[in-house]
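Hi F.,

I've been meaning to write this up properly since the lab meeting, where we talked about keeping a consistent format for the predictions we share between groups. The idea is simple: the sequence comes first, exactly as it goes in, then the structure tokens exactly as they come out, then a line or two of notes. No screenshots and no reformatting. I'm using this chain as the first example so we have something concrete to point to.
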Amino acid sequence: MQKLLTGLFGRLMKSWSWVLLVLLTIGIKWASWYPEWVEKNYSLGVYPWISKAQRYLFGWIPFSVGDLFYAFLVLVVLFQTWKFFRLLFRKKLTRQFFKEALQQGIFFVLFIYVFFNLLWGLNYNRVGVAAQLGLQLKTYTREDLDTLTGALQAKLNIYAARVSGPQRDTFDRKRTLFTSAKAAYNEASVMYPFLDYSPGSVKPSLFSYLGNYLGFQGYYNPFSGEGQVNTTIPRFLEPFVTTHEIAHQVGYARENEANFVAFLACQQYESPAFRYSMYFDMYLYALGELSRRDSVQARFYQEGVHMQVKKDQQEYRDFLYRHRNPVEGIVTWGYGHFLKANNQPAGKRSYNEVVAWLIAYYKKFGAGKL
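Output, unedited:
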């Protein structure tokens, strides 16, 4: 393996490769300052072709190729760490070793940065769905949150009464879950053509059980174009998580936008289970924001939710409690800084910012359209 990695880096780290990576890094940074250019030329220009090609290439494979890629990277890091400590204990570390390690490290970071952005990451800097729908995102008031929470609670109660146990059980077959999520986007694309999603490439994460302890429910792999879903989370969360990951695939990188796009997709889909999953998430976001400003009013709404909602909320709390551990906090901290570095200054709270999109949406179309 050592010879393989050394040979690989030796072939990649030619002088022209360094020049190309540096120029591309500068170009990517320049483009990120011009959201309109990114929107027109990348997000609505080359990216749809890139994402379709990735999904055609890897979507038919029954397991996650991207997860295998991540596993390989972990093995490389472990191998390099083992190699370092072996030389350290044998007192064979030299200035040449540190020089080569630094060069390889910088090259690797630049390589990952460039391909991450070219394959998907530039979407963090696009104008986005607010402009596509003509929404005015403004600072919202407590009254705005009150209206939003009340409207979402009413919808949530309706679908809580309509979703049966057998409907939820159909998602035991993950193919059913993923096919239904794709159908939701097909329905939504009739009204919102920019949500066209074909072909599909959503798969169960190979690290689902590990994800429960690291705190993730799903993720998108920009190197393979696959959406991964943690299929061991409570079943009523799975439809919204799946549509959220598809939102990343169709080009909405920021978490608040991906949440809002998933809202649009589920809203147009005639599935009580999908709508319930979506309204459950949206209600929790709105209730959480309202609670920070008016805890009394938040408790009032919580007392009025359907018994099925209360049951699912308790199941969700129990699920999170069972998997609490010190490592999750470290991962959450690191992921929050990753989001901040990618045009999401609120970090992990970026997910909650979907309420601003929902408020702008009902102010334009009416609360009844939520």
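Notes:
The chain has two domains: 2-125, 130-369.
Strands lie at 202-204, 218-221, 226-229.

If this format works for you, I'll send the rest the same way.

G.
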